[in-house]
Design brief:
The protein is α/β, with parallel strands linked by helices. The protein contains 16 helices and 17 strands. The protein binds pyridoxal-5'-phosphate (PLP).
Length: about 425
Amino acid sequence: MKSIQEQDPKIFELLEKETRRQNTNLELIASENFVSRAVLQANGSNLTNKYAEGYPGKRYYGGCEWADVIEDIARDRAKELFGADWVNVQPHSGATANAAVYLALMKPGDTLLGFDLSHGGHLTHGSPVNFSGIYFKPEFYGVEKETGRLDYNKIRDKAKAVKPKMISIGASAYSRDYDYEAFRSIADEVGALLWMDMAHTAGLIATKLLNDPLPHAHVVTTTTHKTLRGPRGGMILVGKDGENNLGVVAPKSGRTKNWSEVLDSAVFPGTQGGPLMHIIAAKAVAYGEALEDSFKEYQIQVQKNAKALAAKFVELGYDIVSGGTDNHLILIDLRNKGVTGKIAEEALGKAAITVNKNMVPFDTESPFVTSGIRIGAPAMTTRGLQEAEFEYIAFLIDKVIQNSGNEDIHKQVEGEVNDLCERFPLYDFVTA
Ligand SMILES: *Cc1c(COP(=O)(O)O)cnc(C)c1O
């Protein structure tokens, strides 16, 4: 058989260019990471050929003997990693994991109380352009203007006023930890279900560097490719006391089903067809890596690096939303620097620094312009950068932002970025 190089030189060349881009740019997008070679290999394996609709031991296709063992290993490792009673490793992405939660636990028209999208929440938590905002009735809680943090008394008042069927937690641009006990007591008080979407922070939660939602939330979803550093995908989990603390009545039989049955059928056949077995194999490899001591050391460094970045930016006169960070990311409000998020993102891109523009709470610009940028530490920490390098990164970003129209400075910083990246090599191969 031909290699990709022989079969498709055009795509091969573009993959090579992408490898070069990943090697030579500062990757600071908070939702991205670099997987290991082992995860890449499983991801690119021949399991992409296999149909395995159903679950281990109950498949709709033959030839699933090895797929079964692999999915069981992925599930067992995920349970061990998060102290979960039950997991489903089949969701193709964070968004499809969330779709399954909605299908299992909400009816069209039910009210969801979620984290305000313009304060850092995710579009699958009630955006008008997403199914979650189209089929359900979204209500939002947000951060306080003065503190940039959640006020649980206000969330309680809001929940009492709107009586949601479900309360969701989780955001893509919130740098602080959550009080899950407070959330659960609010949910219990108004008779709502509690769902935590830990897409961004799963790696920090697995290593106990952030509060653990599993003992408090009825259901937890995550992506597997952000701080968890696995392949692109999703997962649903239920904590140890979650299994029996609420019965769910099946519409036809009237029989009370348990959570695991209802959630499993919401993934398949509810919202997906065949699972991506090559991705599930890569999830198993990534969970295995996450159970090693070195993963905890990595997450500790992620947190240290994000804190070092925040402190340096404060020193340089930047306005960090909430004043700092508990996790892997910071959100900078650029309004006192006289540039928009769009301008900053573009100028930084020219200097080989990849960040994303981001709305800040109470933003006065549109989502296409924004007043902020979001910066994350996970990817460059995987490459081995520590606090000193992250302080240097803050200095480089400041140089570009202070000179957002000066192409000479952008070129100069690009050179400094390339030198830094060279000191911390990433991949020395194009494909797995
Ligand atoms: C990233 C993210 C998702 C979506 O994950 P995809 O894999 O991109 O579908 C969902 N919720 C939150 C909070 C996220 O940050």
